[in-house]
Amino acid sequence: MKFRSLFLGALMAAATLGPAAAQDSTIPVTVETGKKGPVIDRHIFGQFAEHLGTGIYGGVWVGKDSPIPNVRGIRSDVVAALKAIKVPNVRWPGGCFADEYHWRDGIGDPKKRRVTVNANWGGSIEDNAFGTHEFFDFANQIGAEAYVSVNVGSGTYQEAADWVAYMTADTRNTAGQERAANGQKEPWKIGFLGIGNESWGCGGSMRPETYVDELKRFGRFTRNYNPAQQGDGNPQAMRRIAVGPDDKDTRYTEAVMKAWKERDWTWSIEGLSMHSYTVIKFPATYDSVNFGEKEYAEITKATLRMDDLIAMHSAIMDKYDPDRKVPLIIDEWGTWYAKLPGSPEGFLQQQNSLRDAIVAALNFNIFARHADRVRGANIAQMVNVLQAMILTDKEKMVLTPTYYVHKMYLPFQDATFVPLSYDAGQYQFGDIRMPRVDAVAARDTTGKLWISLVNLDPNRAAAMELKLPGVRVRNAAGQMLTAAKVNSVNSFDKPDTVVPRPFRGNVVNGTVKVDLPAKSVVMLAID
Questions:
Q1: Is residue 198 annotated as part of the catalytic site, yes or no?
Q2: Is the previous residue joined to 95 through a cis bond, with omega within 30 degrees of 0?
Q3: Would residue 1 count as lying in a domain?
Q4: Is the pTM of this model over 0.85?
Q5: Which of 144, 47, 145, 162 shows the shortest CA–CA distance to 402?
Q6: Residues 517, 434: one domain?
Q7: Is residue 14 part of a domain?
Q8: What is the pLDDT of residue 24?
Q9: Phi and psi dihedrals of 36, rounded to 5?
Q10: Alpha helices for 323-448 (secondary structure H)
Q11: Which single residue of 14, 165, 301, 353 could bond 175 by disulfide (Cβ 3.0 to 4.6 Å)?
């Protein structure tokens, strides 16, 4: 009878406290400090700049005669912001635009360049003021490597080969001489060369077998002539990236990797791309500002699919490449919402909220866990388009919550993954369930340990206890990103609504106690 009374008392107490309190016990996180995993390649923090809306014109390029401060037509405020997050590479000129781009339209005297219509994105006029020379100038100004996508869909092998020669050959041949005559004597370095874009869709709607045949020819004839990038094992060598899967469609993964396995000496690739957006319905209908917890939960749950997608395509790649020589490059990812009211059709303008910052952090953590296969990624897109780092309006500029997540994750660039374990718990809204918290650890290039913590729950803080066996912890401090609401945004009038704030953990007997606020991202340095 006494046992029954105690049991009923405990049951009534639990009912009084409710389900939230039942899950609010401290979450232990054990960091396996003595172990190390693969290097988290800095290129997972790459950017994407397509000729789309105001992503280039107004976002990067304002022209040499603009009253907006610029260096050779490239706006200085945007350059300064991107330098601050150490952008490793920029993918250009697209996207769908790449497979209709003819590079000769964008070189030579700007006044004589061909004027075309951007048929993919809103039918806007493309005057080709921003071409090859302007792109490399921009990349050099921000300190990034060039990721150039060649035109496979409507171009030819010869056109692509001539473009790569124009970019990389010295002045002993005509291509280099032409480049020098246009103002650039020294050849440029190409970090990555995309062999087409979405060839399963806007890049030509090709069957996988058709694309593989094209890939072999383009891979053979698009030679890099820059002496600094020659030689076996050269870390500066150009990496050729093949078109890979569209989200969960595995046909391209299978076909391209099978061809790579059976290749001869005439061609090869150094990466396979994958595209996957966080979107609920397509065409996108969800609002980027006016949304509630239901939409927040749906988007956050949807972005976690990235982990399953990487695992699925990696398993296919492992069949043909068990040593994981070919990296998976997720060169288009991010949130996709309905356009902002009043913005032009096809410009893909949306706001960027705390929700997007949490989405970005979750994806970076997923990429880090798959660092042995994922060695590059490009968020879509850099300025004014989709999940942008930066928003501009004429002379005005504002940094988004996603920008600040990139800045917080700087220590993860080329860091070494450190395993950890924890019980993630559960966040639930209606019938939508997902992990309540997310965590990843890494040692930066100096050996310092960093821990990323994300609280997905928009309502409840999470008490966490970080255990670091073998490490004498003296201090745990870093930055936290959160805001009053999940749909809080930075605007031109209120640019500091969602910005990182200082954050400290409480060190007690060698462990670090953290009270992780609701809907937050924390980056902690352990000293």
A1: yes
A2: yes
A3: no
A4: yes
A5: 47
A6: yes
A7: no
A8: 74
A9: -145, 150
A10: 354-369, 401-408
A11: 165
